[in-house]
Amino acid sequence: YARARARDLPPFDVLVTNPPYTSDHVERLLAFCAAVAQPCCLLLPSYVYTKPYYASGPFGALRPLFLVPPCRYKYRSPPGASNAAGAVRKSGSGSSGQVTAPFPSFWYLKLPEAER
């Protein structure tokens, strides 16, 4: 976050991310994306557009496009990931890994006006 605040980032053409949904990561990411000129593709929970920080924030004012997948995404835990209590989860590889889909998610797209 310090590098983003200082505008000390490597050059990029487009930002594609699936950020952590905890704490204020989503709110801060939306503010960052609203402030940069580049396109942004954000995989976020569907409820984000109902939050006050979205409706009254700079990203929501951009009127992004939504790309909704035809079916609900399922997520697998990466090797070594821990749960909220700090216990290491089962790896997401293979059928024994932890698969989760706690809420629907879709893509929030900030595109240049010419690309809409």
TrEMBL record:
Residues 79-102 are annotated as: Disordered. It comes from the Eukaryota. This is Trimethylguanosine synthase. InterPro entries: DNA_methylase_N6_adenine_CS. GO terms for molecular function: methyltransferase activity; nucleic acid binding. GO terms for biological process: methylation.
